[in-house]
Amino acid sequence: MYKLVEDKLEKENLIRQYFVLIGDYIEDFMFRFLNNESFRIDAMAILFKEDLDEEDDEEELQEIKDNQVLLVSEYPASPQDEKAYYSYEEIGDHIETCLNENYKENIKFQEIFKELKAKLES
C-alpha cells in the first residue's frame, strides 16, 4: 500500500527526485509523456490514468483526475512506498525547469518541449 503524499514540500521533493533520476533520459520521458505513456526508472514511475489496472489500482483510479498523472516511488527510492498526483501543467513546469537548468542549448529537446507544451495548452 502506498502512502499518499499531499504536503506541498514533500510533493516537490518527490518530483525533483524523479527528475534527478531520469537525468539524461529526459528525451525519452518527454516523448512518452507526449504520447500519454508511462515512464519508469529504477524504483520510480509516472503513470497515466489509462495505465492503471481496474483491480490492482482501484483506489488510484478513484483518486486520479483526467488531467493528472500518478508518481509512485518505491523502496529504495523512498523509505516507504509513496504516491502523489500531479497535474499535466505541474509536470510541464518541471520539464521546463529541468531543460532550462541542464539542456538550455539543446535545440532538439527544446523543440520536443515546445510540441509537448502546445499539447498541454490545448
Give a written overview of the molecule.
The structure is a single chain. With 122 residues, the chain is an alpha+beta fold. The chain is 49% helix and 18% strand. It has five helices and five strands. The chain has a five-stranded mixed beta sheet with strand order 1-5-4-3-2. Strand 4 (68-73) and strand 5 (82-87) form a beta hairpin. Helix 2 (26-34) runs parallel beside helix 5 (107-121) and helix 4 (88-102) runs antiparallel to helix 5. The longest helix is centred in the N-terminal third of the chain and has 15 residues, at 8-22. 20% of the residues are buried.
Strand content: 15-25%
Element-by-element helix/strand order: EHHEEHEEHH
How would a crystallographer describe the biggest sheet? 5 strands, mixed
Low-confidence stretches: none
Total helical elements: 5
Structural class, please? alpha+beta
The N- and C-terminal alpha carbons lie at a distance of 35 Å
Measured as a percent range, the helix fraction is 40-55%
Number of strands: 5
Computed over alpha carbons, the radius of gyration is: 14 Å
- Overall mean pLDDT stands at 94
What gross morphology would you assign?
globular
Q: Give the spatial strand order of the biggest sheet.
A: 1-5-4-3-2
Q: What would the keywords be for this entry?
A:
single chain, 122 residues, alpha+beta, five-stranded mixed beta sheet, 5 helices, 18% strand
